[in-house]
Amino acid sequence: MNGEVRKAVIPAAGLGTRFLPATKAQPKEMLPLVDKPAIQYVVEEAISVGITDILIITGRGKRSLEDHFDRSFELEYHLEQAGHTELLKSVRAIAELADIHYVRQGAPLGLGHAVAAAADHVGNEPFVVMLGDDIMDQSSGVLANMLKAHERHGRSVVALKEVPYEEVSAYGCAEAEPVEPGLVRLRGLVEKPSPAEAPSNLAVIGRYVFTPAIFEALRRVKPGKGGEIQLTDAIGLLLGEQAVYGYVFSNGRYDTGNKLDWLKATVELALQREDLGEPFAEFLRQKVASLDASEQRGTMPVTKGRPGTTKKTRGAEMTGATS
Predict the structure, then answer these.
(1) 277-297 vs 259-272: helix axis angle to the nearest 10?
(2) How far apart are CA 67 and CA 317, in angstroms?
(3) What is the DSSP string of 48-78?
(4) For 171-217, what is each residue's pLDDT tens digit?
(5) Helix, strand or coil for residue 235?
(6) How confident is the model over 232-276, as pLDDT tens digits?
(7) Measured between alpha carbons, how far is 23 from 108 in angstroms, rounded to an integer?
(8) How does strand 183-191 pair with strand 53-58?
(9) How many whole angstroms separate alpha carbon 141 and alpha carbon 146?
């Protein structure tokens, strides 16, 4: 399906400060979405398009990432002795998902610095970069379609999605022109612009297909704020040498970059489960009905302030996945 693209790089060396204190002693990438750590969803997405050579960029305190994708003989023995056959199969299958390699970034000097650490492993061939903050529904076909665009044009492709203008300051935003349905050619990128400065509301989402030329661009990028090497800046340099395309999609993305979005993603993924979906949906319906009833009585609890105080507030809003 993906032709010459054989390798994926997953940067996972960040400090996870937005999820403290949960990430004080465990990587953000290991926080569960229902019953799987976030990074497993990303690995499974790579596998779904035929990529089984995966490099995870780790950092200090990330050993549990390696342990998760390794065999656990003590656990397997316990499950076998207890007769938990299905659990045993699922645990063993994790270690057989893909050919997973690891390299340490050394210092948290930006996404571009992390991707540059993959140069020796990737070599002179195209590759995929997948960020763990963005979990993709495999049915959306985002990565598969990006690989097809790369095959047609032989150039780098980034994932783009329209976001409200008031949210563009959280993303890199693209200046682009249409090429074909669902595909644009990038003319420029602006990292986290204000709404007034944004060239469009096409935000760069965490999936990339790169030609190996990105590594030379990363070597030329000058450190920015905090001494970080920005991947967006390297893509900007690459634009001066070869075409870079953007695959525009609308559905199938679950944002887990902050606590609220992580909660939304957990709800959406749980609702999709055959074993959990219906009972969980019924719980949510009952919870919303209870909140609505409390609002009508004017007894909604206040989460901050003096104990026992109440105020009227709007009923809980059930939002869908970022789509």
Answers:
(1) 130
(2) 38
(3) HTT--EEEEEE-TT-HHHHHHTS--HHHHHH
(4) 889 999 999 999 999 999 988 888 988 999 999 999 999 999 999 99
(5) helix
(6) 999 999 999 999 999 999 988 988 888 998 999 999 999 999 999
(7) 15
(8) unpaired
(9) 9
